[in-house]
Amino acid sequence: MDNTNFYTLNKWMESISDVTIVGAGLNGLTLSLALERVGLKVTIIGNTDLKKNINNTSYDGRAYALAKASQNLFEALGLWSALSSYSQPIFDVRVTDGDKKNGPSNFHMHFNHKELGDDPLGYTVEDRYLKKTLINRVYKSKNITVLSKTVVNVQTKNDMSYIFCETGNIIKSKVLMACDGKNSKIARDVGVSLTFKNYKQQALVTSVKHERNHKGIAYQFFMPTGPLAILPLRKNRSSIVWVLPTKNGLCNSKLNKNDFKQKLQPVFGSFLGEIELIGKRFSYPLSSIIADSFIKKRVVLIGDSAHSVHPIAGQGFNQGLRDIATIAEVITLAKRRGEDIGSSNVLERYENWRRFDSATLSKSTDLFNSLFSNDNSYLRLGRGLGMSAINNTPFLRKFFMREAAGLNGDQPRLLLGQQL
Question: Cα angle vertex 288, ends 246, 409, to 5°?
Answer without folding.
Answer: 135
